[in-house]
Design goal:
The protein contains five helices and 13 strands. It has about 400 residues and is an alpha+beta fold. The chain has a five-stranded mixed sheet with strand order 1-2-3-13-12. The protein has a four-stranded antiparallel sheet with strand order 4-11-10-9. It has a two-stranded antiparallel sheet with strand order 5-6. The chain folds into two domains: about 150 residues, no CATH class; about 210 residues, no CATH class. A hairpin with a 5-residue loop joins strand 5 and strand 6. The chain is elongated, with a radius of gyration of 30 Å.
Length: about 400
């Protein structure tokens, strides 16, 4: 009996050992499967984050031109985000464009005017280590993500509006300027604030009242251009709120610290009279709030001086969060959005964005001190702070938004 009990006990020990070994292998297998699944989930999210950021960046480059399509494609492909736990570049990035959210997407639009949406599809293969123990599962698994961003038409421009309204050179839309640039040339300086008028100047150009005024180069050198100021007290300031045309309000509006009434295309511009010299200091304060107070211009710097920026890209750019770059990029504070008025009717023609130069109000001698902004394009607004020099040829203001 003693020997028999000993054999039974040994058999039980062997069974427990085998069971424990099998359980350990099963637990190890389940842990491995969970690790593979967790990696797939994380890498899928990384691909989606890349696609979202790339589609926003691409949509932000669409400006109704073939150059805008090329810049959008390059912007999406050069996105700084990475995958595989931030180690690798995304291997396959496909960028397509459409004039409408429900429309046909193509990588190379024949007529790019009006294309407002960018779709980015990304693909990558993930090496897996434990899932192949299951029948039919290979050693790698394909992942993909898709995102669509576009320029969303706003009902009006309110918060963020700058308290100036430059005069359009060509009332939009006209066949002479189908891209919606108001007759402006990107990279030229246009007048935000005109010099004081009615002081007997013999230089400058006549406004609609026949007074000689001094502005910025883009206005002064345009043949036949007539500024639309209808009295001697106007400089280019606008009242963004009923009674909000005073010097203190204008200063706060320049710095972005006030609520303003919505402005829509077709609204009458409410001009604010006065020189408001404190606005010069406010403009300088706004420039100093940017993280890039080095770059002198937006468009006109030689491409070879831009370091990593390829030819055709602009000299100033807005940093993506958490991704500082060399040369310095900015936070968008030097990019401002303003209504553009038709000088013959004093009505809003559309919205545009300007870049504030380092010295926006140079003293040109004789007391003349206009304030200038570099035209960078019809208005489209990035999510959050900052802006972009784009828009796809429409009269309205657009905000870049994710749709899918």
């Amino acid at each position: 009996m003693t020997a028999s009990r000993r054999r039974v006990r040994n058999l039980r020990k062997g069974f427990v050992l085998l069971t424990a070994a099998a359980g350990a292998l099963a637990m190890l297998g389940m842990t491995g499967l969970c690790l593979d699944l967790a990696r797939l989930y994380i890498l899928k999210n990384e691909l989606q984050s890349f696609a979202d950021a790339a589609s926003i960046a691409a949509a932000n480059r669409l400006d109704g031109t073939a150059e805008g399509i090329a810049a959008a494609t390059a912007e999406a492909g050069n996105n700084v985000n990475r995958w595989n736990f931030g180690q690798d570049a995304v291997p396959t990035v496909q960028v397509e464009f459409s004039a409408s959210l429900a429309g046909w997407f193509t990588s190379n639009p024949i007529a790019p005017l009006g294309y407002k949406f960018a779709r980015v599809q990304v693909h990558g293969n993930v090496t897996i280590y434990f899932l192949p123990i299951l029948s039919g599962v290979g050693a790698s698994y394909p992942l993909q993500a898709e995102s669509v961003a576009g320029q969303q038409l706003l009902s009006g421009l309110s918060d963020g509006a700058f308290p100036f309204s430059p005069d359009a050179h060509v009332p939009n839309p006209l066949p002479e300027d189908p891209t919606g640039n108001f007759g402006f040339t990107k990279g030229k300086l246009y007048t935000l604030r005109w010099d004081p008028v009615g002081k007997g100047q013999k230089i400058g150009i006549p406004n609609t009242k026949g007074n000689m005024v001094v502005g910025c180069d883009g206005d002064m050198t345009e043949p036949g251009f007539v500024p639309g100021m209808d009295n001697n007290g106007q400089r280019g300031y606008i009242d963004l709120q009923q009674g909000g045309g005073g010097a203190a309000f204008i200063r706060e509006a320049i710095l972005g610290g006030v609520d303003v009434d919505p402005i829509q295309v077709g609204d009458a511009i409410d001009n604010a009279n006065g020189n408001k010299q404190s606005a010069v200091g406010a403009l300088l304060d706004r420039i100093n709030q940017d993280t890039n107070t080095v770059t002198p211009t937006y468009y006109t710097a030689p491409a070879l001086t831009v370091g990593l920026e390829p030819p055709g890209r602009t000299y100033y750019g807005v940093d993506p969060p958490g991704a500082p770059s060399t040369p310095p990029r900015g936070n968008g504070r030097r990019i401002v959005t303003m209504p553009i008025n038709d000088p013959t009717t004093d009505l809003v023609s559309g919205f545009a964005q300007f870049f504030l130069p380092l010295n926006p109000c140079p003293n040109l001698g004789g007391g003349a001190q206009p304030c200038c902004g570099e035209y960078i394009g019809p208005a489209s607004l990035l999510p959050g702070d900052g802006g972009a020099p784009n828009g796809s040829g429409s009269l309205g203001a657009y905000r870049i938004a994710l749709f899918q």
